[in-house]
Design a protein that fits this description.
The protein is an all-alpha fold. The protein contains seven helices and no strands.
């Protein structure tokens, strides 16, 4: 939903910027905050119309301001709702139908995670056997051998470079 809104409907960012933001934010703690701040900064630099924004201090300040504003705006309604609902939650959390409803909500959340994984796979790996093998190899290394994820990311980058050289400089 976020991608459709930001990339397809409003055209604030392009698909590559969306994927970069999602990838960077999942590598750092506080995924949603980082994602909101990154997209806020990107949107501010995209809306100025100036493609050479790295040389101006004003653009850095504007991007930083937009990033902070996006991060705060993203989380403030949730925090206010949480503070308002805490007294009510302490009363109703032990009701049986609430406990059963939470099980259903958890199932929906797992469905959203699986959908996101599949969308990322199709947008980035697609039908490439080389990228599929690389992705599956990294999954096995993390899942079964419990390697440190940043090391696996670096390993995957090296494997991607080697695969690109073997195939003639092009992976996809």
């Amino acid at each position: 939903m976020l991608r459709d809104e930001m990339v397809d409907e409003r055209k604030w960012i392009n698909n590559q910027q969306f994927i970069n933001g999602l990838s960077l934010s999942t590598a750092l703690p506080g995924v949603r905050y980082n994602l909101a701040a990154f997209y806020g900064a990107i949107i501010s630099s995209n809306t100025t119309g100036n493609t050479n924004t790295t040389n101006t201090i004003n653009q850095y300040l504007l991007s930083t301001t937009y990033g902070i504003a996006a991060g705060v705006s993203f989380h403030l309604p949730g925090y206010l709702t949480m503070i308002g609902c805490l007294p009510l939650w302490s009363i109703i959390r032990n009701l049986k139908f609430i406990k059963k409803a939470i099980i259903g909500v958890n199932a929906v959340c797992v469905g959203y995670v699986i959908t996101t994984i599949l969308q990322l796979w199709m947008n980035n790996v697609g039908e490439s056997p080389y990228l599929s093998a690389n992705s599956i190899l990294c999954l096995v290394i993390v899942w079964f051998f419990d390697f440190y994820p940043p090391v696996v990311v670096l390993f995957s980058a090296v494997v991607g470079i080697v695969m690109g050289q073997i195939k003639g400089g092009e992976i996809l």
